[in-house]
Amino acid sequence: MDFLNPAILWGLAALGIPVLIHLWNGRKGITMAWAAVRFLEENNNKPARHIKFDQWMLLMVRLLLLALLVLLLSKLVWATSSNPKEKKVIHLVEPSMELLAEFKFELQQAINKGEQVFWLDQHQTELHDLESFSPMSENGSIYFSNLLTNKEDAVDNIHLYLSGYESAIEGNFIPVTVNPTLYVSNFSSPKKSTNLIQVNPNKLLYINELNQLELSDEPVENPGQVYDGTFTYFLDLESEKQVEIIKASLQAIYDVFELEFEESTNEDAQLYFTDQSKIDPKPDRIYWKTGNFEREQYANIYHLRGLDRGIVSIEAYEELPEQIVNDLFDFLEIKREHTRLTASQLQSRFHLLEVEQKPTQANTYEILWVLFLFVLVVERLLSNWSRV
Hints:
This protein is of the alpha/beta class. It has 3 domains: 2-80 and 363-386, no CATH class; 89-191 and 339-352; 226-331, 3-Layer(aba) Sandwich (Rossmann fold). Helix content is 29%, strand content 18%. It has 8 helices and 18 strands. The strands form 5 sheets. The chain has a 5-stranded mixed beta sheet with strand order 5-4-3-6-8. A 5-stranded parallel beta sheet has the order 14-13-15-16-17, covered by helices on one side. A 4-stranded mixed beta sheet has the order 11-10-9-12, with no helix packed on it. It is elongated and about 140 Å long. The chain starts with a strand and ends with a helix.
């Protein structure tokens, strides 16, 4: 039971008014003249101070009438439990087998209850059997997509399982319709060290602890995957000026980082520059597109912003080398291991969206109106009968 206008309940204090009126009317009494009144002694000539039974009945009816009026104005809502709405709960797991193993018991219980469990990779795979699950990707970025903001199929509770590493969560503002319950790993080991590029037999190119590119001849402890420092590239561009700028950019990269780029006439080159609107990308290649660009569903397609819409400028010469290096390192997953965040730091990144909810309607309106009218009729009948 609930009230949409609870402040109106203060009106119940007015129930004391009919009581006071009835008591006052009872004290006044009624003067009746009759022939033998002169023979009564003065001490016996006192007004009656009792209230008739029918007056008490009238008092109760009037109190009930006032109480029903207050309940009507306060908009009483009576909670029904005949068909309770089943709460929807989902569990979202960062792509990490160590994390999956740590919270295996909790996740298996969720599956047994019929709750949905999702592996937060690009495919957002729903897990049905933890024993036979074999991930398509692991230790990558988290892809929430619309799982946190789906207003059409809104969830009541979200359980989010995270390793706690900053590198797994992109951005400081993650919109949600429900604040998630976080489960942060206590035992997951740091991810593998950054991948490297073997520039030559004596030098390595990687991102150091200061998040800076470093070309060093010193060995790196626990390196990840090591890539060869020579790349082949293919140019599928109609503009000769764009071809000139891209070649100049690759030369600038070689001068600074000693990475070698060899032009190829084969479309299967490692680096592919194109101005075509439609391409069929291969997962082991990296693509750059010029001109009008719409966000691609493929993670290995990048936009050459310096050559946007075919405009060639001085800025293009300055921006392209840095962009090509950043995109290449992103594709090869060459990045510094970020710091680990606490549960409160992770929670602060999730921001609750305002969701328009259907207003609650009072479900006792008709019943209270019928009772009010019925009691009103009874009160009028008793009042006329008692002449009060």
